Amino acid sequence: MADTHLGASRQRVWRYGVLPLIGVVAIAILVLRVDVGSILSELRGAELTWVLASAAALTIFYLVRAARWHLILGRRHPYTLVFWISSLGYLANNAAPGLGELAKPWLLRRRRSVPFAAGMSTVVLERLLDFWGLATIGLVSFVVLAVQGSSVPGWLLGVGAGVAGATTLILIATFVAARNTDSVVSWIRRVLNRLPLSPRLAERVCDVIDSLLAGAAILRSSLPTQIALFGSTWATWLINALAAYLAFRAVGLDPEPAVLVGGLMAVAVSQGLPAPPGYIGTYQAVWLLAYSGLGLGPEEKVLAAAIVSHGVILILTVTYGFLGLQSVLVSARELLSLRKEPRPAFAPAGLTSEEKP
């Protein structure tokens, strides 16, 4: 009991103390680095037409990304429900980064009786595809920059190459495993039986792996479906790059496509790191670091574009998220209390289409 209480206390310190402090430190560094007056001037002069165009592009991004998850789920559930659950995931991530990845399978289980592990495995595949799409697009951008004679920071090139290579290898391994699920689970069971583990624990591990591979069932589908899967991944993040470009245009900057996509890759990958609520401070800091490192400037305009981009994202995700609360019939309190719930047991996956009232 004491250990549980201590663990909960540490979690509260991390969530309500350390993470917000990261945002405060990031904002302080930005304030010391740039001229705040110039930033405010740039924001006052931002062109509303470009800002609204960025919002429209982001809306398309959310629609296409939900369509891809709908495809991963085997089109067993209404697209509108999948979209609103995705929107609630963004809302949850604003409140507590990372919570959205738990909220989506939890909501699928609540509304469509999908086992938590099955839903979670589709979310894992989603994130894997996101990192693959961003990294490969970014890597192509860096090659283009190098061919054009532009210098690319070593750390950025390393991130792109590392993430692209790692995600490609993981996708290949997942592809092979998904097409040989029974053999993989049987092999793992034989290995576990040779270890000093209880039969119950060994079977539980096998169930988890079986559930995770079930979420990757789309990798066993036809070639046209897989082309749609990977094509929609690239389309999703190119649309997101368009939204970022329109945010830059709002403050009078016109970045080259390779610079645009390369910087966006760094920003998106950084969101997998510990961050304060809403990514406030860290989003702007990484944006400035990445784009300034790629030679875009002046810094005041780059940071103003980051504030425009992030502001649009927050407004849209909060708006669509609260609309999603009404559509999915869940309260904000229930959504935000997810981390206090006991973790659902992993069970062999079966994506049922039975909707709960």
Describe the structure.
The protein is mainly α and 357 residues long. The chain has one domain. Helix content is 76%, strand content 0%. It has 14 helices and no strands. The chain has helices spanning 2-33, 36-44, 48-72, 79-95, 99-112, 116-147, 154-178, 181-193, 199-215, 223-250, 257-270, 282-293, 299-328, 332-336. Helix 3 (48-72) packs across helix 4 (79-95), helix 4 packs across helix 13 and helix 10 crosses helix 13 (299-328). The longest helix is centred in the N-terminal third of the chain and has 32 residues, at 2-33. The protein is globular. The model is unreliable at 1-6 and 341-357 (pLDDT under 50).
How many strands, what sense, and barrel or not for the largest sheet? none
Question: In terms of structural class, how would the helical and strand content be classed?
Answer: mainly alpha
Strand content: under 5%
Rounded to the nearest angstrom, the radius of gyration is 22 Å
Mean pLDDT: 82
Give the distance, in angstroms, between the N- and C-terminal Cα atoms: 37 Å
Number of strands: 0
Order of helices and strands: HHHHHHHHHHHHHH
Number of separate helices: 14
Percentage of helical residues? over 70%
Shape: globular
Total tally of structural domains = 1
Low-confidence stretches: 1-6, 341-357
